[in-house]
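Report of the visiting student (M.T.), summer placement. My assignment was to run the structure pipeline on a short list of targets and document each run. The first record concerns TetR/AcrR family transcriptional regulator.
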Amino acid sequence: MAAELSAHHRRLAQQKREAITTAATELFLDRGYDGTSLARIAEAAGVSKSTLFKRFPTKAALFEAIVTESWQRDAGDAAARPQTGDLRSGLTTVGHRYADLVGQPGMTALFRIVIAELPRFPELGRMQFQLGKLPYFTSVQRYLESEHEAGNADVPDAASAANQFLGMIANYVLWPRMLLTDWNPAASDIHDAVEQAVQTMLARYTPTRRPDPKPER
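After the run finished, the structure tokens were exported:
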């Protein structure tokens, strides 16, 4: 019984947390970061101010949580690097995970908030980069380094390669959404965009196999 109550309380706490971050994201978009108070967020989320302040004593702490949760959504899959050994398979896995991540509506909203508020609140941009973008980028860089070290890829500059790969995908999945409110590519088109990015990476970074030397006579 105690375990059931504990699980029930955890579910309620998670539901309240999600209600708060969802309400905050919507209000930041609608009213701006500066024009949104924690009290207004609590009202929109349907929680008491004491409940919100206990979890997020400042707007900066709340925004930090939004950034972290947005980039770590489905972290059980997205944060795990593929096993080294098959470059095509690994890149395909990474590419589709990234397309799913940046294609979610919440990610578009997050980027819009940061871009709109950046001149007045540069710390929001730093949070987005340091807590979200950079850790994810680094995980992809480390994967490419592992393939290079294993001899499965010729990637002398894994940072540049990771930037190229993620950039090809984001350029189709994310960035058009920033300017076009009706941009909503079909799942098949997103799949094709990822596959094309994988093919480009394979063409550039698959190691050239030298022929085995002929045995001496």
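The mean pLDDT is 88. The two ends are 80 Å apart (CA to CA). I thank the supervising group for their guidance throughout the placement.
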